[in-house]
Amino acid sequence: MKTQELLRRYKKQELDFSGINLHSANLKKANLTRINLTRADLSDADLNNADLSGACLKQANLTNADLNHASLVGANLTEINLIGAELIGIDLSGANLSGADLRCANLHQANLSNADLTDVDLSGADLTNADLTNAKLAGTDITVADTKGAKISKTSLDKGVRTQSNTSHHWVSWSGQ
């Protein structure tokens, strides 16, 4: 599906786009609140300044996507692939990222307050100056990320319930290339 088709259908209040292929899509500044993009391929997509608050991106592939300054407040991002994604200044407050893969993601100045980061892979992630206040970190090793200047107050490993032994990798690259 082409980006313009998605936006046209969304404007008509269609919300379920599960499994859609939007590899390299330009959704810069798009308002896609409450959209369902479960298992969608948004690898290399430009979602800079997009609003995906309350959206469902469960098991979606956002490898190398640009989500700088995007809003995903309260979004369901369980088992999402954000490997190498640009997430500078993103608002993920209250989002569920349990089982997410954030290896080498750039979360500089990200708002992760009250987020569920249970069983998240943060290997090589940049959390410089990020806000992790009240985040749930059960099963997540934050020491493998750069946390210089990060707010980690009121964060506790016992706030989450470890549900998996390893990060889930149910997602794949669906771009067909």
UniProtKB/TrEMBL annotation:
InterPro entries assigned to the protein according to its UniProt record, in alphabetical order: 5peptide_repeat, Pentapeptide-BTB/POZ_domain
Name of the featured protein: Pentapeptide repeat protein
Organism of derivation: Hyella patelloides LEGE 07179
